Amino acid sequence: MGTVYDTIIVGGGLVGAALACGIAARGRLVAVVDGDDRDFRASRGNFGLVWVQGKGAGFPAYARWTAMAAKYWPDFECELRETTGIDFGFRQNGGYDFCLDQVEWVARSEEMSLVQQHTRGEFEYEMLDNTELKRRIPQVSGDVFGASYSDHDGHVNPLYLLRALHQRMQKLGCRYYPNQRVISTRPKNGSFIVKTSSDRYQAKQIVLCAGLDNQRLAHELGMHIPVHPIRGQLLITERVESFLPCASLPVRQTMEGTLQIGNSHENVGFDDSTTLDVITRLAARAVRIFPHLSGVRLVRAWGALRVMTPDGVPIYHRSAHYPGAYAISCHSGVTLTSLHAGVVADWVCDDAIDALIAEFSAERFDVSNTSLRV
Fold first, then answer.
1. Mean pLDDT of the chain
2. Rounded CA gap, 148 and 99, in Å?
């Protein structure tokens, strides 16, 4: 167990790796203890969106947090790409969410207006009818009622992003320990001991970024982190001629030319398999929006489990019982990467505390807590 680290991060996905980069860049000695390929890994099965539309409608702090993340992304991307040489396909040239009928369009318009109010006008958007939408994307069906559009949105290749974060954190001196299932985390004399299936590690701080396993591990550190899985299924097509200039929720065209089709939300427990009914539904909606895709071949499909909190909003929590213990849980690991490597790393290092972070404490799920969100 020799080395005593400044910080141990449990979990080496997008959240843990981004945080490791941020903390190590501040001169701390960091160890990242990660699981293996049999674990549920949202970082390797997500849609790759940097997305602001709709985030935080009804939760003003989350709307502002997401807008801040999107604003920081260009500088973050530039630094990460220059220090690693990896192009992870970041494009922040807008995003569409298609509405198939007037009911969807009206609901979306109300949601966008609410997010704009929450961000005090910082979030900008347009509601497009079919005529304007087809002017921008001629392949859109005439049966699509319209769409919402925002310049704030974009997308990345999440696998290349994860690779870049891992390369960056190790260049900064982080020690990475894969294939280490964490059995227990316990405080000991002002530090923390992480016991894995094959070793033990010690640090002055511990941050749980273990996705769905956060709930189990947090209890040992005096924290209640309520998370549950929501399955999303994704489809990948063969390469097609470029036609979709921006990201969208149901369909995005990757930098390689393939199409990624998704946006399912299934409460099925810890089951990340694929099902024919959902695959059929996702493909049918994509073809309804873009009829020219009807002859395009699907080449693979997979399911992945999102990390969801009871209200769908991230948790950033510091243990009141054991100072130095933190937990982070969210389902927007791509969008929030720029903040996890920045202001959240500052929060963990106690260099600076962003006022918004307090709004995401797990204490909001305590029924005795009557404080209001602002």
1. 92
2. 8
CA distance 256 to 275: 26
Contact (Cβ atoms closer than 8 angstroms) between residue 72 and residue 132: no
Domains of the chain: 4-48+159-227+312-365 (3.50.50.60), 95-150 (no CATH), 228-308 (3.30.9.10)
User: Which residues neighbour 84 within 8 Å (Cβ) at sequence distance 6 or greater?
Assistant: 164, 167, 168, 171
CA angle 98, 99, 100 (to 5 degrees): 115
Q: What are phi and psi of 356, to 5 degrees?
A: -70, -30
184 and 192 Cβ atoms separated by less than 8 Å: no
Quote the pLDDT of residue 43: 54
Contact 261, 237 (CB under 8 A): yes
**Nearest-CA neighbor of 159 among 73, 88, 256, 212?**
88
User: How far is residue 134's CA from residue 141's CA, in Å, rounded to a whole number?
Assistant: 8
Question: Per-residue pLDDT for 5 more than 70?
Answer: yes
Task: Provide the 8-state DSSP code for 41.
Answer: -
Q: What percent of the chain has pLDDT over 70?
A: 94
Query: Which DSSP category does 91 fall into?
Result: B
Q: Which letter does DSSP use for residue 266 in this model? A: B
CA distance 281 to 316: 35
* β-bridge mates for residue 102, sequence order: none
Which residue spans within 91-218 are E strands per DSSP? 95-99, 126-129, 146-150, 154-155, 175-177, 182-188, 191-196, 200-208
* C-alpha distance from residue 350 to each of 190, 227, 261 (Å): 17, 26, 41
What token pair was written down for 324?
């130095």
Fill in the DSSP letter of residue 304.
E
**Strands 4-10 and 191-196, bridge-based pairing:** unpaired
pLDDT in tens, 281-331: 999 999 999 999 999 999 999 898 899 999 999 999 999 999 999 999 998
Q: If you search the block for the tokens 């130095």, which residue do you land on? A: 324
190-193 contact pairs (CB < 8 A, 24+): 190/324, 191/4, 191/324, 192/8, 192/221, 192/322, 192/324, 192/325, 193/1
